């Protein structure tokens, strides 16, 4: 299978401004839209637009300070990046950076054309092929990538940095388990099961999580372009199944009393037994419980 010209990626300080321009210029709506990474598909060629700060954090050696060659990548999809790397490397036409697996699942290698433009050649594993949605546990690398995106979405709010380290530590200690929604191999949404009463959000309240039979569903969120399509509902089902496999018989979830839409959703999911309430950060939070239909204790 010959390589296919896939996309051009523009690196910019203002992703959404460029998205609006290229949507009008190409007459095609964005398939993915957020201020970190957006993508406008085309017939055989797409335009990707990527946040400069995020790109710089991933590859500090690149120069994004001027509108030169490093502000645009040329991307190709292939069947196997490892095979293509060996073929291109044998040609001796450029210095290549060997293949590596990226946090979102693609394997890629890079090189430069004679004028210095960066070319990225990538392949996708079958289970994370583009245009697919997946609902699963992230790898350790994917979990850090997910939180780096959260931090980039909330620049100036240092709480997200603390929450990142706290969540990663709880996952490593098996006091919590994070799950994510993936689109085209990239995380776009998440939720975390809190098992231990030592978790900060639980605050010692064993009615919410006791480490044995009751766990708490926490921090459900998804990027705005994907809201309202049932992805969080599917993710929660995966979380509920996992909790049952671990021997938990009930899950709890919290919602601010004023968030009536979310409350209606949680009631629909089966979280109907009010177990406690508390004033948190100036808002009344209601905690509801759902009994799992069946649990299968881990061997």
| Rg over C-alpha atoms, rounded to the nearest angstrom | 22 Å
CATH topology of the largest domain: Aminopeptidase
CATH secondary-structure class of the largest domain: Alpha Beta
Main-sheet strand order equals 2-3-1-4-7-6-5
Q: How are the secondary structure elements laid out?
A:
Elements: E1 4-12, H1 15-26, E2 37-40, E3 46-51, H2 52-58, E4 72-77, H3 81-91, E5 97-101, E6 107-112, E7 118-123, E8 133-136, H4 140-153, H5 159-172, E9 176-183, E10 186-194, E11 214-222, H6 231-245, E12 250-256, H7 260-269, E13 273-280, E14 283-291
Parallel strand pairs: 1-3, 4-7, 11-12
Antiparallel strand pairs: 1-4, 2-3, 5-6, 6-7, 8-9, 9-10, 10-11, 12-14, 13-14
Helix pairs in contact: 4-5
Question: What can you tell me about this protein's structure?
Answer:
The protein is an alpha+beta fold. It has helices at residues 15-26, 52-58, 81-91, 140-153, 159-172, 231-245, 260-269; strands spanning 4-12, 37-40, 46-51, 72-77, 97-101, 107-112, 118-123, 133-136, 176-183, 186-194, 214-222, 250-256, 273-280, 283-291. It has 7 helices and 14 strands. The strands form 2 sheets. It has a 7-stranded mixed sheet with strand order 2-3-1-4-7-6-5. It has a 7-stranded mixed sheet with strand order 8-9-10-11-12-14-13, sandwiched between helices. β13 and β14 form a beta hairpin. The chain is elongated, with a radius of gyration of 22 Å.
